[in-house]
Amino acid sequence: MSAQLHPPTTPHTGTITPITSLTTRYAPHVLALFRIVVGLLFACHGAASLFGVLGGAMGNGSALPAGSWPGWYAAVIQLAGGLLVLLGLGTRAAAFVSSGSMAYAYFSVHQGNALWPIQNGGEPSAIYCWAFLLILFLGPGAWPLDRLFFGSRDGAPEATD
User: Fold this and answer.
1) What is the pLDDT of residue 161?
2) How far is C-alpha 28 from the geometric centre of its chain's CA atoms?
3) Are 155 and 1 in contact (CB under 8 A)?
4) Most exposed residue of 35, 43, 63, 66, measured as fewest CB within 10 angstroms of its CB?
């Protein structure tokens, strides 16, 4: 079930303001743009680690050895999960797995080095974890390919332009 985006009303009059009407109208489209950007950036991390492109794994220009734990498997999740989220195919499942992989990365790789993400280098893991959790709960927004192939499966209203 998708989160419904209801326009907030003013506390005293109960009326919808023009700005809330505007933001409510475009919320599914902004959510879709957020999903697309997050998915693209996440897929780029996976491609860099798997194929040595875009600076390669950890910026050293090389690819991770196939099957190496946990980096290679994380890169597969990044590439596949990022592409699925980007396209809006199985978005919630892909966001769930991607969020979990970033939580694992944060707590197994970064958190032991220092308490705060700014200190331990875990900011990307933390941000991706929460971004994918948001996508999991709010859904894909407008324009997911799932809707094109299967119709609206989760009862979410179709976005209108």
Assistant:
1) 41
2) 15
3) yes
4) 66
Phi and psi, residue 35, nearest 5°: -60, -45
Indicate if the alpha-carbon torsion angle 129, 124, 53, 135 is positive or negative.
positive
Whether residue 53 is predicted with pLDDT greater than 60 in this model: the reply is yes
* The predicted structure's pLDDT at residue 100: 98
Residues in the chain: 161
| Total-model pTM | 0.81
Residue owning tokens 């780029």: 44
